[in-house]
Amino acid sequence: MHPPTALVPLHYVSLGARGPEDVVADAHGRVLTGVEDGRILRLHDPGDPRTARVEVLAETGGRPLGLELHPDGALLVCDAERGLLRVDPATGTVRVLADTVAGERIRFCSNAVALPDGSVYFTVSSRRHPLDRWIGDIVEHTGTGRLLRLAPGAREAEVLLEGLQFANGLAASADGSFLVLAETGARRLTRYHLTGPRAGHAGPFAALPGMPDNLWREGPDGPIWVALAGPRVPPLDLLHRTGPAVRAAAARIAVHVPFRPGGTVGVLALDDHGRTVHHLTRRRSGYRMVTSVCSTGEHLVLGSLREPGVAVCARPAAG
What we know:
Blueprint: E1 5-6, E2 9-14, E3 23-25, E4 31-34, E5 39-44, E6 53-59, E7 64-69, E8 75-79, E9 83-87, E10 94-98, E11 100-101, E12 104-105, E13 109-114, E14 120-124, H1 134-140, E15 145-150, E16 158-164, E17 167-172, E18 178-183, E19 188-193, E20 202-207, E21 210-217, E22 224-231, H2 234-240, H3 244-254, E23 265-270, E24 276-282, E25 290-296, E26 299-304, E27 309-314
Parallel strand pairs: 1-24
Antiparallel strand pairs: 2-27, 3-4, 4-5, 5-6, 7-8, 8-9, 9-10, 11-12, 13-14, 14-15, 15-16, 17-18, 18-19, 19-20, 21-22, 22-23, 23-24, 25-26, 26-27
């Protein structure tokens, strides 16, 4: 792991709504995000606070989390309440692609990836705890996260992996041979093979210094950016070594205690071998609980589950 360098804040852009949990940049340098009230927003010119402008693309009627730009121009939305959605940015039309798997309702859809063959892979963070009680899943550490696949033309998803520790961000390798999946509760990235002799199997990709959230791939030749929603917490590590009854009791308490994120924030950029390209951190940050990061031009744009806007930071030099 590279020693961290400074994450340099430049300015803040208010969105007029809380919780831009995931941020993705399109080919024109605009940033798309979903917020707490169910709207999908597009931020124009995020690098200049004087001319930055926000427009509403759609309303999901739920709570949008992870976003993915589909090759055909549509926007895939993982909605924590409604499942996997498809949004037409031109008309604002919202269509449900999948809201059940194996007869069970999908209730914590988290992040998605669209592949050239038309298949969509997406994660479910928890089968036990809804979004507003996400801390319960992290504390209980029961591993009910899933990786799902929606085949082209299919109406119901299939389960590919189970037992994941708060499955979260998702990104594809440059050659499309594997997926990288964030397990927030285990502080690691997992590789899921799509091709080759290990197709359908998972293994370690990278261990991390904090809890990963959303992932974003910077083009076919760029790195995978990883948002670290929080640093490693040694007391939580100790709790995870206790029995299920102790963890369940702790989770019941945790969901009723107001969560106050710390002031240390960080992002990583990794190559397809799991090697660190950039490791950026900031202590005593006013912008907290960074759950996503993308790049546009000379800037990094950060999203957060809690903040009412995005933070724009300096992009690190190449290499």
